[in-house]
Amino acid sequence: MKVLIADDHWVVRESLKQVMRRLRKTLEVYEAETFEEAAATLAAHPDVDLMLVDLVMPGFDEFEGLRRLRADFPDVPVVVISVHEDVEYVLRSVEQGVIGYIPKSSDGEQIERALERVLAGEVSFPRRIIERSAPAGAPKPAEIAPPHQARSLHALTGRERDVLSLLGRGYSIKRIAEELELSSQTIRVHLGSVMKKLNLHDRSAAIHYAISLGKDVVAAGRG
């Protein structure tokens, strides 16, 4: 497996390398301290399987940097490693198609669990940030969601709302399956139905929508 770790702090890169090597015995690691180095490495090694990237490093202008990565290297899965512990950063990262968001304050075990999910083909987002109460004056979930999509929530079955609600809390497909005592394949079928009914084109869009709505996903089914 080939992994690119892009962060301007060598201590962070070294820590991530150690975690990855515990999870994958056969691992080829590339490192980058700047956006230019990261882009050059991806261009030279288009078969990179995973990229771990910090939002703050030389030449990497947070979400503009993510946009450039997704535009130039759309096939490389990206996980954000960030000092920012704000749900808005998680949401905006999801909008750019990342498959994971790991706060730098996470301990070794939390980072390892998050990367295990990613390596298993799941997504991983920090529930403790997603579930944190929004600050005073922040827009309510219903104000974030487009009106036609908010109305479409009533078209979901109870089980589909359950799946969407847990997805919005940062649960992986496997964790949702365990919580609802269903198979992972059944959860994927429910999620596919949710995405079709709400006109959501990929799982990233579904996650962003679910996080934005929060508890309103369940409330819509009771109205």
UniProtKB/TrEMBL annotation:
PROSITE patterns xref list: HTH_LUXR_2 (PS50043), RESPONSE_REGULATORY (PS50110)
Query: One Pfam family, short name please?
Result: GerE
For this UniProt record, the keywords arranged alphabetically read as follows: DNA-binding, Phosphoprotein
Residues bearing 4-aspartylphosphate are 54
**Gene Ontology molecular function terms on file:** DNA binding
User: Which InterPro entries does this UniProt record tie to the protein?
Assistant: CheY-like_superfamily, EvgA-like, NreC/VraR/RcsB-like_REC, Sig_transdc_resp-reg_C-effctor, Sig_transdc_resp-reg_receiver, Tscrpt_reg_LuxR_C
Q: Which domain of life is it from?
A: Bacteria
Give all residue intervals belonging to the HTH luxR-type domain.
149-214
Which parts of the sequence belong to the Response regulatory domain? Answer: 2-119
List this protein's GO terms for biological process: phosphorelay signal transduction system; regulation of DNA-templated transcription
What is the name attached to this protein's record?
DNA-binding NarL/FixJ family response regulator
